[in-house]
Amino acid sequence: MKISVIYWSGTGNTEKMAEYVAEGAKSGGADVALMTVSEADAGVLDSDVLLFGCPAMGAEELEETEFEPFFAAIEPGLKGRRIGLFGSYEWADGEWMRRWQERALNDGAVMIADGVIAYGAPDADAAAACRALGSAAARQI
Q1: Nearest-CA neighbor of 81 among 55, 38, 49?
Q2: Are the beta carbons of 3 and 25 closer than 8 angstroms?
């Protein structure tokens, strides 16, 4: 089973979350590819489960220079695919995650869990939630 963890991080908070997600998936016995969005291509759609990480930017949006164009490009391939979402934020209440999750569902993706969010740097609770997301991904096959 292959799980791809694809993320963008400006401050390192979402990168740390991605590492925790990958830890959880590896502990469940999955083959995990951890990569930044700039390292990813459409080949990630060959993965059994896709886990995407992006912080809230601007007005509660996905990062618009790298992550948004990548996600938009692969959206047509998400139909029927198992995915999970995670990311950090530092204002508002995490509305970007709710919108992102709704967008993925509208694309036909199968959410393996609710999106995982962390306010700023991931604390112990957020780290545990990230590991649980990775573990849930490993249980999908």
Answers
A1: 49
A2: yes
pTM over 0.85: yes
End-to-end CA distance of the chain: 7
On the 0-12 / 13-18 / 19+ scale of CB atoms within 10 A, 75 is middle
The pLDDT profile of the chain, 141 residues, written as one tens digit per residue, is 899 999 999 999 999 999 999 999 999 999 999 999 999 999 999 999 999 999 999 888 999 999 999 999 999 999 999 999 999 998 878 899 999 999 999 999 999 999 999 999 999 999 999 999 999 999 996
> Residues 126, 19: contact at Cβ < 8 Å?
no
Burial of 129 (0-12, 13-18, 19+ CB in 10 A): buried
Structure token pair of residue 104: 């993925």
In this structure, what token pair is assigned to residue 28? 């469940």
Q: Which of 36, 29, 41, 21 is nearest to 2 (CA)?
A: 29
